[in-house]
Amino acid sequence: MQNKREIVKTKILTYIKKLYQNNIKKLPSEENMTQTFGVSRVTIRAVLSELASEGVITRRQGYGTFISDTVRHLDVQFNPVTSYNKMIEEFGYHESSKILTIEVIDDASKTIYHKLHVPKKSKLVYTTRLFFANDTPCVYCTDYFPLSLLQQQKDTEQIPDFPKSIFSFLSRVSNHKVVKDYTQISTVLASNHADLSHYFLNEKTTEKSFLKLACINYNQNDEPVIYAQEYVDTQFIKFFSVRKKQL
């Protein structure tokens, strides 16, 4: 759950985007924003300082606070609790998703057991799902998490009730909430991956490249709870990185 400052930050970011879309580059004074958002000036100042450090806004002494052009790229960020459904909608497509596989396995690779910090041959819940943009497949995801996170194996029957995110499922049926992830980014060709070939290639599309996100997701106790491999078709979803330079 977001704390008060995070909620205010989200509202201010939405406000900033609307100003930018209307070609307004200068923010109102802190006093005016205090009245607009109904919070203290201390909270407004703290949020603006954070946004300035992220490069979203620029403060010019004696002139005011201005919106940086980088705000146009803030619609999608690497955020472990943001579902692909939401990302797809933010890029202007109709979203839908489908769970393809729900299995309990004990023969995952040594690498997966290592990343989840569980002994080899431990039982894992393995799921796959497909996300669609305007009914066209655009993201393929595989998730692994220890069965021991659930009170009973029967709880896996509830996974279809959470087609958008395995994070939501774990949060609801256990005490584990994903709060951050460690992501390794690479690229992969569909022809080198059996499932990608099956779902994305056809007579007209004989090859396609994907952005692969290999993610270790951590709970509120800094414990690894989900290992995910996400294959993203960047024709539909694009990621942007804003890097602040130190002089």
From TrEMBL:
Q: Does the keyword Ribonucleoprotein apply?
A: no
A Gene Ontology biological process annotation?
Answer: negative regulation of DNA-templated transcription
GO molecular-function annotation terms?
DNA binding; DNA-binding transcription factor activity; hydrolase activity
One Pfam family hit: GntR
| SMART domains noted in UniProt | HTH_GNTR, UTRA
Q: Which residues form the HTH gntR-type domain?
A: 2-70
The record, for Gene3D superfamilies, names: Chorismate lyase-like, Winged helix-like DNA-binding domain superfamily/Winged helix DNA-binding domain
What is this protein's record name? Transcriptional regulator in cluster with Zn-dependent hydrolase
